[in-house]
Design goal:
single chain, mainly alpha
Length: 94
C-alpha cells in the first residue's frame, strides 16, 4: 500500500509534529513498507489458530485482599519531623 507524503504530513499535523520535507518522503516510504508487510500477513491462513495476546504463558500471582492494621498511629508519626499527634505537619505550598 502506498502512502503519500501529504498523508504523512496530515497525520504529523494531527500528532502536532513538525516534520521536514525530506522526512515526509522517508516516513511515507517506511509506512508504505509496513503496510505492505501487514497485507502480506493478512494472506496467511490462520484457520484453527487460537488467538492469543502473547506467545508466552504468564501466571498471575495474586494474594487475598485483606485489610489489616500493622502499625499504630503513634508509631508512624514518630518518624515525622513535625506532627500534631494525629497528622503530619508539612510546609504550605501555594
Amino acid at each position: 500500500m502506498k502512502i503519500s507524503p501529504e498523508e504523512v504530513a496530515r497525520v504529523a499535523r494531527l500528532a502536532r509534529l513538525d516534520l521536514a520535507e525530506d522526512k515526509l518522503e522517508l516516513f511515507a516510504d517506511q509506512l508504505g513498507d509496513i503496510l505492505t508487510y501487514m497485507e502480506k500477513l493478512s494472506e496467511v491462513d490462520t484457520e484453527g489458530v487460537i488467538p492469543m495476546f502473547t506467545p508466552v504463558e504468564h501466571v498471575t500471582v495474586t494474594r487475598p485482599d485483606v485489610v489489616k492494621k500493622e502499625y499504630e498511629r503513634e508509631e508512624i508519626l514518630s518518624n515525622a519531623p513535625e506532627q500534631d499527634g494525629e497528622h503530619f505537619i508539612v510546609p504550605r505550598i501555594v
